[in-house]
Amino acid sequence: MSVATTQKPIRIGGLYTVPVNQRWIRVLHEAALNFVVRGEIDYQYVEDVADEDYERVFERLSQEELDLIIGDAFAHEESARLLAQKFPNISYLMGSSFQIHDQFKNFSVFDSYIQDASYLSGIVGASLTKNGRIGLIGRYPTPSINRLMNAFIGGTKELSPGLDITVDFLDSWFDLDGATEMTNRRISSGVDVIYADAPGVAETASESGIPVISSLSGIEWRQADTVVTGARWHLEPTLQAAIEQIREGGITTTDFGVYSYMHHNGCSLAPVGRFINDISEDAVELTALRELELRQQRFTATFDTERPR
Asked: Rounded to an integer, what distance in angstroms lies between the CA atom of residue 207 and that of residue 184?
């Protein structure tokens, strides 16, 4: 249910450790802008905050007349929670790998729990391979990246249990040369479908005509003509739930991760478009069935944060 736009806008601040065009943060930023257009929030943000400046900027932003601060706390989990206690009248909703704790009553968490859509993309990916070899290339084996990779693998194995799956990590957030080298090495080894978590992978694969499944809602969609589909993250349900709680008196120690699930419309499988004829009828039917079941909470996608193998 939408909040009436005649109500006073919620005042929201964004605290981002990377530029807002970085794909994970871009999902937050664009969701906030959508609520600005609807007249539901006033929004200001600080981007590309260096680690050494995080606490200072955190405090400065918290001294503004804000109702809610959103952002990422992955590299500052403990300090962010402690700093938030200095500002009990502000609610914090931060991307985090930690769980909620009653000790930090105004600090809530979320993450890109879009494993539902990643699972579906795995079904599609499995239908595209001709020699049964799929490669996954990621940035770091973090819990959030592992979770989406494992969900993708789960989807591939449901359609084709005997696939040969290889997983590589760059151990870098941004290494175009490394991504190019790793992608070409995997293609040379016989991989003919690639799951791309890292920048540069899709672009390199497109040069060889290798179909790519993207992770999250990355800019690969505009850069590589062989990207077939991928999991898309929609933060609007998360932000809507936070806004409603604030209007009801404030957020108290809530895990908002569930609002990224498919049954809350927090994620979706990107349209396949011109690749639809390359996907087997069995895969199309299974994808449609599992999506319906996920939306009705009658099926659970693979949820595993361990390093995929």
From this structure: 10
Range of the domain at 19: 10-110
CA distances from 292 to 1, 11, 123, 268, 288 (A): 22, 36, 14, 12, 6
CA distance linking residue 16 with residue 27, whole number of Å: 12
Under 8 Å between Cβ of 266 and 114: yes
Q: Which portions of the chain are predicted below pLDDT 70?
A: 1-6, 217-224
* Packing angle of the helix pair 77-84, 54-62 (nearest 10 deg): 30
Question: How many structural domains is the chain composed of?
Answer: 2
Look at residue 59 and tell me if it is in a domain: yes
Q: Are the C-beta atoms of 215 and 231 separated by less than 8 Å? A: yes
- Are 121 and 283 contacting, i.e. CB atoms less than 8 angstroms apart? no
Q: Which of 110, 126, 154 is the last residue of a domain?
A: 110
Amino acid type, 73 = A
Answer yes or no: pTM beyond 0.70: yes
- pLDDT per position as a tens digit, 13-50: 999 999 998 888 999 999 999 999 999 999 999 999 99
Burial class (CB in 10 A: 0-12, 13-18, 19+), 54: buried
Task: Enter the tokens of residue 228.
Answer: 């077939």
Query: What pLDDT digit, counting tens, does each position of 65-78 carry?
Result: 899 999 999 889 99
Residues 48, 121, single domain; the answer is no
Q: Which of left, alpha, beta for 101 (phi over 0: left; psi -120 to 50: alpha)?
A: beta
